[in-house]
Design a protein that fits this description.
The complex is a heterodimer of chains A (402) and B (371).
Chain A: E1 5-10, E2 31-32, E3 36-37, H1 40-48, E4 53-57, H2 63-69, E5 83-87, H3 103-108, H4 111-117, E6 121-126, E7 129-131, H5 135-145, E8 149-155, E9 165-169, E10 175-180, E11 189-198, H6 199-210, H7 219-229, E12 234-238, E13 243-245, H8 249-261, E14 284-286, E15 291-293, E16 295-297, E17 302-303, E18 306-308, E19 311-312, E20 317-318, E21 323-325, E22 328-329, E23 334-335, E24 340-342, E25 344-346, E26 351-352, E27 357-358, E28 373-375, E29 380-381, E30 386-387, E31 392-393
Parallel strand pairs in A: 1-4, 1-6, 4-5, 8-12, 14-17, 15-18, 17-20, 18-21, 19-22, 20-23, 21-24, 22-25, 23-26, 24-27, 25-28, 26-29, 27-30, 28-31
Antiparallel strand pairs in A: 2-3, 6-11, 7-13, 8-11, 9-10
Helix pairs in contact in A: 6-7
Chain B: E1 4-9, E2 30-31, E3 35-36, H1 38-47, E4 52-56, H2 62-68, E5 82-86, E6 92-93, E7 96-97, H3 103-109, H4 111-115, E8 121-126, E9 129-131, H5 135-145, E10 149-154, E11 165-168, E12 174-178, E13 188-197, H6 198-210, H7 216-222, E14 230-234, E15 239-241, H8 245-253, H9 258-264, E16 281-283, E17 288-290, E18 292-294, E19 299-300, E20 303-305, E21 308-309, E22 314-315, E23 320-322, E24 325-326, E25 331-332, E26 337-339, E27 341-343, E28 348-349, E29 354-356, E30 363-365
Parallel strand pairs in B: 1-4, 1-8, 4-5, 10-14, 16-19, 17-20, 18-21, 19-22, 20-23, 21-24, 22-25, 23-26, 24-27, 25-28, 26-29, 27-30
Antiparallel strand pairs in B: 2-3, 6-7, 8-13, 9-15, 10-13, 11-12, 11-13
Helix pairs in contact in B: 3-6
């Protein structure tokens, strides 16, 4: 059946800057904020925005992500018509198919999928951003302007503008120039990697782009500049809520801490719910010897130690006499008696044995060498072991360098 | 098809849960921070591989319907089989529609449903029982013993008084079913879980119907202890029948004991419930929380001790909550003090109010009240 608007979610990236956290899962499946995985944000935004058809483009280590999405039921995306669809690369007659070569190529290879719904508009989303956004409003702006493409932008401090893809606009927010990580930015409007396209236009540009052997088949590098050069109408849609790209260990840690402070990213605020798929676990137990401050705890947690400024995901355990501060404990982590965890991200099912010391405060070492300490999923810090700040260990207890 | 079919009875009047059951049946009384009482037996059935479950409704069942929905949270929303709700308008008699008086009458009212059961055997259970029991083991014991009926019971006699007791012989066969019984020493307490074949169930239903007998206990357990082989299955794990408010409070507070939580929250046999989308619970630097069971979606800025907080509870700065059970979305405002209070869903306690119940008589605040 025809749909006015469908969403395509780019979830195939390796997320190599998350290192050990994505050694076995795709970046969108990385846990966030106690109950969620990163992909819950775009999926929930879709369903809250009234978009009921979402294609999820997967490529890198998709198994956990696939089983997490399942039928799409937690996000109300199990529909008779539409719903969520996993779209991996596939074989075709003749050229026998290829991996997705770039973001634009991923959509190009699934033109057939989009055409099944014959939409007027397509929203292109990334699977590595934490934000709450109504795509419906952005679509309204796109329709009102009669644009070929609308790009969601965020005002960033001028000093940081050179780290982003920057949109230079005229007085009516028409995009006049796109600069990728410019040394001398012409504006401070950064692209959030969220696009609304008029499907007919995008389809045309995808086919032309595919026929250009020199193209890297990327939205930012190719499709957007090509559209600008051809004089298409591209507009910027200003977003002023919380948005964070969690593609790096530091930004993932930051976003978790931002969630704790409940400023712009208040997950307990219920008007725009974020949905998740969770195992059924009993409520969290906070014991007699526990001290918990400025932290979140989730079902299945058992806390008997000290937890300060930290995020405890479901099934995390902190034993008596252990101390966890400024850290993110992903699902199923155990911190045993007397262990200390500071400024760390502990991947799913990590074990920190008794008396171990993982990570440290910025003032505890040379500031140039400091960083968040990361244990990959399934990794273990042995009894009494000291894991220095800025260190990463994988499940085989090997140190991984950044 | 060899296998088990589940039938759960929900009763309205056989309890003293005070304000907690003015708007709902005991089956849907909230328990353990995020569950309803019926979740336990229902999840036990699902965890034992039972795919078809009928719930016999009774009385004020609106809240139970809201809770069970299509059954999808228990994986019982199926195109074939799954959850079937059996409402009381099935009990049409010459005198018009009325509620059923006993289990046999309830089953007679849904006879056509019983005939359509795909499985060879049926497990009958009540909905006021907190238990995490592997029903597949009970079923295997039933098949091995060759009994007509297998009755699950416990040697722990500390539960509510108005229950059925069994006298067992050396082979574990039930020789007598007793109710009421003032001195149950030497007996076993029935947990009201019975397994029998579909065929035997239909025979018994028909026989009772033609003799105008309505009660499973008197017409089957008591009258047929000699002619039928009723075998006991003695369960030595945790089991709590919730029939009184005092029992409800004590059984809830027991959950703060890790050994008891381990018994009812078995990792391989999870208890499922209707899911809600709450973020994780936030504990503010101004708040303290100790010896508490806390569900998701709570905001704790005050002091909370020895309490059970359901989903979405908020405790404001300066408030003090001790030995309380606060159900879904309860709001405790600034500087309010609550001791030994059971606050039902959506209760709001305004600024600086002081509410003191007692261990022996907890104060219950009815659903949606504002103090």
């Amino acid at each position: 059946m025809k749909k006015e608007c469908i969403a395509m979610l780019l979830a195939g990236g390796q997320g190599s800057r998350l290192y050990v956290l994505t050694s076995n899962v795709a970046k969108p499946a990385v846990p966030f904020g106690g109950k969620y995985r990163i992909i819950d944000f775009p999926l929930s935004n879709c369903t809250n925005s009234g978009i009921d058809t979402v294609g999820v483009l997967t490529q890198y280590k998709p198994l956990e992500l696939n089983s997490y999405i399942g039928s799409g039921q937690p996000w109300d995306l199990d529909r008779l018509d539409g719903g969520v669809h996993i779209l991996p690369p596939y074989m075709r007659e003749g050229d026998k198919g290829t991996w997705f070569k770039g973001t634009a190529n991923a959509i190009y290879q699934n033109i057939g999928f989009v055409d099944m719904y014959d939409p007027d508009y397509v929203v292109i989303l990334s699977g590595d951003h934490i934000y709450k956004m109504n795509y419906g409003k952005m679509l309204d702006a796109h329709k009102k302007a009669g644009a070929a493409c609308t790009i969601s932008v965020l005002e960033v401090p001028w000093s940081e503008a050179s780290r982003f893809g920057i949109m230079a606009v005229d007085g009516e927010d028409n995009i006049v120039e796109f600069q990728e990580k410019p040394k001398e930015p012409k504006s401070n409007l950064a692209s959030m990697g969220i696009y609304v396209f008029t499907w007919k236009k995008l389809r045309e540009y995808l086919i032309n782009d595919e026929n250009d052997p020199s193209s890297s088949n990327d939205f930012g590098k190719n499709i957007i500049p090509n559209m600008l050069n051809a004089g298409e109408k591209l507009i910027a849609y200003r977003f002023d809520g919380y948005w964070k790209d969690v593609g790096t260990l530091e930004s993932l840690w930051d976003a978790n801490m931002d969630m704790l402070s409940r400023g712009d990213l208040d997950l307990l605020e219920s008007s725009w719910p974020i949905y998740a798929r969770l195992p059924s676990e009993p409520p969290a137990f906070i014991g007699k010897s526990a001290l918990v401050e400025h932290s979140v705890v989730t079902q299945g947690c058992e806390v008997n130690g000290t937890v300060l400024n930290s995020v405890l995901s479901h099934g995390a355990r902190v034993e008596e006499g252990a101390e966890v501060s400024y850290s993110v404990l992903m699902p199923g982590v155990t911190v045993k008696r007397g262990a200390v965890v500071r400024y760390a991200i502990l991947g799913e099912n990590c074990q920190v044995e008794a008396g171990a010391c993982v990570g440290g405060a910025p003032e505890s070492c040379d500031p140039d060498k400091w960083g968040v300490t990361v244990l990959g999923p399934g990794a273990c810090a042995g009894p009494g072991e000291v894991v220095a700040p800025n260190t990463m260990l994988n499940r085989d207890h090997k140190e991984v360098s950044r | 098809m060899k296998g088990l079919h589940g039938i759960i009875f929900s009763h309205e009047n056989r309890n003293d849960l005070r304000e907690l059951t003015t708007q709902r049946m005991p089956a849907s009384v909230p328990f353990a921070g995020r569950y309803r009482i019926i979740d336990f037996i229902l999840s036990d059935m699902v965890n034992a591989g039972i795919t078809d479950v009928g719930v016999v409704l009774h009385g004020n069942y609106q809240s139970l319907l809201d809770h069970l929905g299509s059954g999808k949270d228990w994986d019982l929303s199926r195109s074939h089989g799954g959850l079937r709700l059996l409402p009381p308008f099935f009990y049409q008699t010459a005198g018009g529609a009325r509620e059923f008086r006993g289990k046999m009458e309830a089953l007679a009212g849904v006879r056509s449903y019983l005939e359509g059961i795909r499985q060879s055997h049926v497990v009958l259970a009540d909905s006021d029982l907190i238990i995490n029991i592997p029903l597949q083991d009970v079923f295997q014991a039933h098949l091995d013993s060759g009994a007509d009926i297998t009755a699950v019971c416990t040697g722990d006699l500390t539960g509510p008084a108005d229950v059925t007791y069994f006298r067992l012989n050396d082979q574990g066969r039930v020789t007598e079913s007793l109710y009421p019984l003032n001195n149950p020493a030497g007996c076993h307490r029935s947990l009201e879980i019975y397994i029998l074949s579909k065929q035997k169930l239909l025979e018994l239903v028909d026989e009772c119907m033609s003799h105008d007998q309505v009660s499973f206990r008197s017409a089957v357990l008591q009258a047929k202890a000699g002619s039928l082989h009723i075998q006991s299955y003695v369960w030595d794990g945790y089991a709590a029948q919730i029939r009184t408010l005092r029992g409800y409070y004590l059984r809830s507070m027991e959950l703060l004991d890790p050994a008891i939580r381990r018994e009812i929250f078995h990792p391989q046999r999870p208890i499922h419930t209707k899911e809600r989308n709450d973020a994780s619970t936030y504990i503010d630097p101004a708040g303290t929380c100790c010896n508490c069971l806390v569900a998701d979606g709570c905001t704790i800025e005050g002091t909370v001790e020895n309490s059970i907080l359901f989903r979405g509870v908020s405790v404001a700065k300066g408030a003090e909550v001790k030995n309380c059970i606060l159900m879904q979305d309860v709001v405790i405002s600034r500087d309010a003090v609550c001791h030994y209070v059971i606050a039902d869903k959506n209760v709001q306690i305004m600024d600086s109010r002081t509410l003191m119940g007692h261990d022996q008589y907890p104060m219950v605040i009815a659903k949606d009240s504002k103090v």
